[in-house]
Design brief:
about 550 residues; Rossmann fold; Multidrug-efflux Transporter Regulator, Chain: A, Domain 2; 17 helices; elongated
Length: about 550
């Protein structure tokens, strides 16, 4: 079957003079009914027309004008509404581009106009994409074909989604009629491919973890975030940070989000730190399940039937500004930023993901360590060119990002771009807000069931290790493990004959600090302080997730 596909690989229909001829035929066919009507009416009115030349002139001019306008209207309508005619128009545009840029072979003919022969250029189109394939094979236009992608992007007013290089050919893939794939905000759901944002756009949060959403005032960012929330709340745990207290505070009292929407500085700091510690607990849970399943390697959260968790941070620069203004909380703010970094770096396998929303992105708003590890990016509305460069990176530095207010004469909201880090950005339309009489986010969220993390539902989880088992779990040489244990005991930490899961997490914290360049003493002190804070937080929430036997 693979060999069969290679032999009969369909690249599309070759571009040639027939495309120009076909356009003329379509115009003639559209004019034909008017010409027949003209002939019939002229036959009926011929005596009157011949007796009054002024009437004859007016009649001819009027008929030509009406026929031309009607033909133009029908021609445009066909190209707007019907895919077949859109495809013909795209073929005509490609032929025109080749002709105007003299990408053809002139064939001299004696006493006749030169004949034009076009190189092997193919066009294939489906509902959402245009694929232009050009033959290389050392031809005269090989260099032009290798660099034609950007020019065709402008020709089609489309977005270059990728380039495919194969033996003897190069193909350029463009998004086309993207707005046709727009969905309603009430239809955003998690499906097999990921979170569906358009009919052909899915955020694959497992393979392209974390999401950056950028949008200026009035660009549709809030509707996009609420649409995303509508899809995530049905299968995941969602925590929200709203520093401006503008768009999500009203959802705080809903059962599905109760105690999960925060906006005070200390609460926001604690929410980030708590989310990170929940991730660490999730890893401990996964390691326990790994042992129970006798797995050699730790799988991801899906293998253990664990729910994903998402932390949505709206107006991220405002959050950073609020944390930096309170000098008394500088240490906590630094800890929160460190926790956020760890979530973004380590969260994927455990199923912990971050969605950061902002307006125009500046380099100092979002540290590069965070930005470079947020794999999926979406922008809506009008942004500065610099923001586009920061969001979509080097891969798109030469891309022309368009701001379009109207499509087919109608104002459009929520238009922007979508891209995965390192890949070309493509045109994007955020989910459309339904009629308020028929749909309300608040009413919809009110019907949803509240979901919890696995350790939020259990009272006791007992797990113990011997010293050797714990050193193996930590992947430490036993002598190094004894060094850590000795330092803990010197710092006043007491251990039983066996070690608990909390001891495991505390050791992991110390090892992590040590890897960052801190001394043993500094690492041990930070780990003890950190774990004591977590115990206070867990107890204050009325939750005990682990006890010693």
């Amino acid at each position: 079957m693979k060999l069969f596909k290679q032999i009969f690989h369909f690249k599309g229909i070759k571009i040639g003079k027939k495309d120009k001829t076909l356009q003329k035929i379509i115009v003639i066919v559209l004019l034909l009914p008017f010409l027949l009507l003209f002939g019939f009416l002229t036959y009926l009115l011929l005596p009157q027309l011949l007796s009054n030349y002024i009437l004859l002139i007016v009649y001819i001019i009027l008929f030509i004008a009406v026929s031309a306008l009607a033909t133009f209207f029908i021609y445009r309508l066909l190209h707007i509404k019907f895919w077949f005619f859109k495809k013909l128009e795209n073929r005509r545009l490609l032929l025109r581009h080749l002709t105007e840029n003299r990408i053809f072979y002139p064939i001299k003919r004696k006493d006749k106009k030169d004949k034009i022969k076009y190189p092997a250029v193919y066009l294939k189109q489906n509902k959402y994409t245009i694929i232009v394939t050009l033959e290389l094979r050392g031809g005269q236009f090989q260099d032009k074909f290798l660099n034609i992608g950007g020019a065709l992007e402008v020709t089609y007013s489309a977005d270059l989604m990728g380039r495919i290089d194969e033996k003897g050919f190069v193909s350029y893939v463009y998004s086309a009629d993207t707005i046709l794939g727009r969905i309603s905000a009430k239809d955003v759901r998690v499906v097999e491919q990921g979170l569906m944002l358009m009919e052909d756009v899915f955020w694959d949060y497992v393979h392209d973890p974390h999401l950056l959403v950028a949008g200026g005032t009035g660009g549709g960012k809030t509707v996009l975030l609420r649409s995303i929330l509508n899809g995530l709340l049905r299968f995941a745990i969602v925590e929200m940070i709203d520093p401006k207290q503008a768009d999500f505070v009203s959802l705080a009292e809903l059962p599905v989000l109760k105690d999960r929407v925060v906006y005070e500085v200390l609460d926001m700091i604690n929410k980030i730190i708590q989310f990170k510690e929940n991730m660490e607990i999730r890893y401990a849970t996964m390691r326990q399940l790994q042992k129970e399943k006798n797995q050699k390697e730790l799988g991801n959260f899906q293998e253990y039937n664990l729910k994903p968790a998402f932390l949505i941070i709206d107006e991220f620069p405002s959050l950073r500004a609020m944390m930096s203004e309170d000098r008394e909380m500088m240490l906590e703010a630094e800890q929160a930023m460190g926790a956020l970094k760890q979530i973004i770096l380590k969260g994927r396998q455990a199923g912990f993901f971050v969605i950061i929303a902002t307006q125009n992105v500046k380099a100092d708003d979002l540290p590069s360590t965070l930005k470079d590890n947020i794999m999926t990016r979406v922008s809506v509305g009008r942004l500065s060119q610099y923001s586009y460069e920061v969001i979509y990176g080097e891969e798109n530095k030469n891309k022309y990002f368009k701001y379009i207010e109207q499509i087919n004469g109608e104002r459009v909201y929520g238009r922007g771009y979508y891209g995965v880090f390192g890949s070309p950005a493509r045109e994007f339309f955020s989910p459309e807000l339904p009629d308020p009489k028929e749909f309300s986010f608040y009413d919809e969220f009110e019907t949803l069931e509240r979901l919890d993390l696995e350790f939020d539902k259990q009272d006791v989880v007992v797990k113990t290790y011997t010293a050797k088992e714990l050193s193996d779990e930590l992947k430490l040489d036993y002598r190094v493990f004894k060094k850590y244990k000795s330092e803990f005991e010197t710092a006043g930490q007491e251990f039983d004959k066996t070690f608990s899961t909390s001891d495991l997490i505390m050791f992991e914290r110390a090892i992590e600090c040590r890897k960052s360049g801190k001394t043993y003493q500094e690492s041990i002190s930070e780990a003890i302080l950190w774990w004591n804070n977590q115990k206070l937080r867990l107890l204050s929430g009325g939750l005990v997730w682990e006890t010693r036997p």
